[in-house]
Design brief:
This protein is an alpha/beta fold. It is about 35% helix and about 25% strand. The longest helix is centred in the middle third of the chain and has 16 residues, at about 180-195. The structure holds MU-OXO-diiron.
């Protein structure tokens, strides 16, 4: 796409990755974008870059606006390769640029991208003047790497927020009021659940810093730019950061010969009879990142697997490893499934749920195939579990 002027003399020169479907395990069904912003003032400043494989496209877009050799500053809000992978190419094209970065970011960038950068290390409250406007830097460590910062332009009221407020959502439109609002907020929530959830406790402090600024536009490094729904996305982040639960239940399972599936379906009936909204996800056909977003605001989790070779099925193991990383603390959880002789899946699932920070409850098992009595008991088990949420 052509460079888009998002505000006077501020251009989005980033790249849309229409076909990416896997972002280190996060399934990006709607693609992604790596947003980079070019400010043309008395000084020329580039804010964030793109993945290394898209460096040429970034530089070509910049060239349509200014000669890249004239770039004075490159702000490196975050060193992760989706935003900083093109730094070596940008250094070659803009050899006189200063690279504005946190101290932690500098240390990381030297390892990832090598020597040769003229780094300008900044800390909270530091500013640079571009001429008619200035940029202020606000470190946001652990949202979601130690190096993260955001950049604020008071004259335009734009917060260049990097990963925060982003979404993996490829779209030819750039602004919140131009796209489907439901999809936009779903993708923003999915992004929060899969990227920021482990650090959600830090969101409140970050929002306090944002509240001190007059933010008219939030320009993230992924997805759609917020201009009409700034207050709404800030309010959603406050809710998501506080870990609010909606009382719903997620049942995630896999099955060998159908018996654990029979239990899972009975459990949906039991939970529904208790009046609890329930989602059933079969893990040989559901991405872990979908479980994350569905579980994010839910109150309960039931995980089901038959015993296979003394353990759980690998689809369930993979999902629980993924959830352990996200640390869904405060969710009530239990394991269920079938086994043939010695079992093993149940204790392994329970150990993983505990390691994931869940509030582990009594589980449910049955031997070999689920009988009619087992199905009735599974229904009652889920009814009682759902009532406790
Ligand atoms: Fe979008 Fe943490 O990189």
């Amino acid at each position: 796409m052509m460079p888009m002027e998002i505000a006077p003399k501020i251009y989005d020169v980033g790249v849309t990755d229409w076909t990416v479907r896997d972002f280190h395990g996060y399934k990006t069904e709607r693609g992604a974008s790596y947003n980079s912003y070019l400010i043309v003032d008395e000084k020329i400043c580039l804010i964030d870059t793109v993945k290394a494989c898209y460096a040429d496209e970034l530089l070509e877009k910049i060239s349509r606006v200014v000669d890249p050799a004239k770039i004075d500053y490159v702000v490196v809000n975050h060193v992760e390769p989706d935003h900083a992978g093109a730094l070596p190419a940008v250094l070659k094209a803009a050899p006189n640029a200063k690279f504005v970065i946190t101290m932690q970011g500098k240390n990381e960038a030297l390892v990832h991208y090598g020597e040769g950068f003229d780094f300008m290390v900044v800390k909270e409250g530091d500013k640079i003047s571009l001429g008619s406007r200035e940029l202020a830097f606000v470190p946001m460590p652990m949202l979601h790497w130690p190096d993260n910062m955001v950049t604020y332009c008071p004259q335009d009221g734009i917060l260049f927020s990097n990963d925060a407020f982003g979404q993996h959502y490829a779209n030819s439109k750039r602004f919140d009021d131009e796209v489907d609002e439901y999809v936009l907020f779903y993708e923003a929530k999915k992004y929060f659940a899969n990227i920021l959830w482990p650090y959600a406790r830090l969101i409140g402090g970050a929002l306090k810093k944002a509240a001190a600024l007059d933010v008219k536009m939030i320009a993230p490094a992924h997805g759609i730019i917020w201009r009409s729904m700034v207050d709404k996305i800030l309010e959603r982040y406050a809710v998501w950061g506080a870990g609010m639960q909606d009382g719903s239940l997620v049942i995630a399972y896999d099955t060998m010969w159908g018996s654990t599936e029979t239990l899972a379906r009975a459990m949906v009936e039991g939970a529904a009879a208790a009046g609890v909204h329930t989602k059933l996800l079969r893990m040989d056909r559901t991405p872990c990142s979908t479980v994350a977003v569905d579980l994010f605001e839910a109150s309960g989790l039931l995980v089901g697997s038959p015993t296979l070779n003394s353990g759980m099925m690998q689809t369930i193991g993979g999902m629980l490893v993924y959830l352990k990383g996200l640390q869904p603390k405060g969710k009530k959880a239990a394991a269920f499934g079938t086994f043939g002789w010695a079992g093993g899946a149940q204790k392994d699932m329970e150990a993983m749920l505990t390691a994931a920070g869940c509030d582990l409850q009594q589980g449910f098992t049955c031997k070999w195939r689920a009988s009619a009595d087992d199905v009735a008991a599974a229904r009652q088990f889920a009814y009682d579990f759902a009532k406790s949420l």
